[in-house]
Amino acid sequence: MIFKRSERGKAPVEPVTLKILVAGGFGVGKTTLVGAVSEIKPLRTEELLSEAGRPVDDTSGVSGKHTTTVAMDFGRITLRDDLVLYVFGTPGQDRFWFLWDELATGALGAVVLADTRRLEDCFAAVDYFERRSIPFVVGVNCFEGASRYPADAVRQALDLDPGVPVLMCDARERQSVKEVLIGVVQHAMEAAAAAREPATT
User: Fold this and answer.
1) Gap between the Cα atoms of 59 and 68, Å rounded
2) 80: helix, strand or coil
3) How much is the average pLDDT of 160-184?
4) Dihedral sign computed on CA atoms, order 58, 32, 175, 85
5) Distance of alpha carbon 73 from alpha carbon 38, whole angstroms
6) Contact by Cβ (8 Å): 3, 13
7) Is residue 187 pLDDT above 60, yes or no?
8) Of residues 140 and 196, which shows the higher confidence score?
C-alpha cells in the first residue's frame, strides 16, 4: 500500500486507488499511452508479430508495427496525494478479447482510444463498455498525417450518446494523456452522481 505525507507532522494519507482501462483497436496507441503517463516502469506483455499470426492480425494502416500486446499493459499515475490511478491497457486483437472481462472487473471507467483513419476499429470497445454500463471517454489519438475532425463529427461517426466526452490527445505526451485520464475520472463521478439521484415523477 502506498502512503504519502502531505505535510510534516501530519498522519500519512492513504490514497484512493482507481482502476482505468485503455481499450481500442489494434495499433491505435494503447501501449504508448500507458507508457507515456506511468510514473513507474510500465508492465508490458508484448510479443513480436509472426508469420503465423498474419492471417488473423490485420496490420493494414499499421505496417510499421512489429509487436503486439497479448495480455495487458499496466502503469500507475498519482493525480493527487490522495488519488492514484492504475491504468490497464487491453489487447486489441479479437483473439484476446476473452481477457477484457477480467481486466474490466472493478474498473471505474475507460478510455476508448481511436484513430480517425481506422475509426471502425474502436466500435467493439465502444459496444463493450456501453453494454456493461462502464463510463468511458473517447480519446482521439491525433497521429501525424491523419485528418483532424471536430469532436461532434467523431461522436456522430461512432453513434455515441451526447454525454460521452470526446477528447483529442497525443498518446506520446504525458500531459495530454493525463488530461484524458482526468476526463475519465470526472465523467465516471458525474455518471455515479446521476445514478444516485432519485427519479423524478
Assistant:
1) 11
2) strand
3) 97
4) positive
5) 11
6) yes
7) yes
8) 140
Q: Which amino acid is at 140?
A: V
Grid cell 513507474 — which residue?
40
- The answer, yes or no, to whether residue 82 has pLDDT greater than 60, is yes
Band of residue 115 on the pLDDT scale cut at 50, 70, 90: very high
Least confident among 68-72, 129-133, 194-198: 68-72
42: left (phi over 0), alpha (psi -120 to 50) or beta: beta
Distance CA 58, CA 26 (A): 8
Please answer whether residues 8 and 71 qualify as being in contact, where contact means their C-beta atoms are separated by less than 8 angstroms: no
Phi, psi torsion values for 71, nearest 5 degrees: -140, -65
Alpha carbon distance 109, 8 (integer Å): 34
CA distance linking residue 119 with residue 146, whole number of Å: 11
- Whose grid coordinates read 471536430? 150
Strand partners, 58: none
Q: What is the DSSP string of 151-177?
A: HHHHHHHHT--TTS-EEEE-TT-HHHH
The tens digit of pLDDT for each residue in 13-54 reads 789 999 999 999 888 999 999 999 999 998 876 555 444 444
Whole-angstrom distance, CA of residue 146 vs CA of residue 51:
28
User: What stretch of H or E contains 37?
Assistant: helix 30-37
**Nine cell digits for residue 63:** 505496417
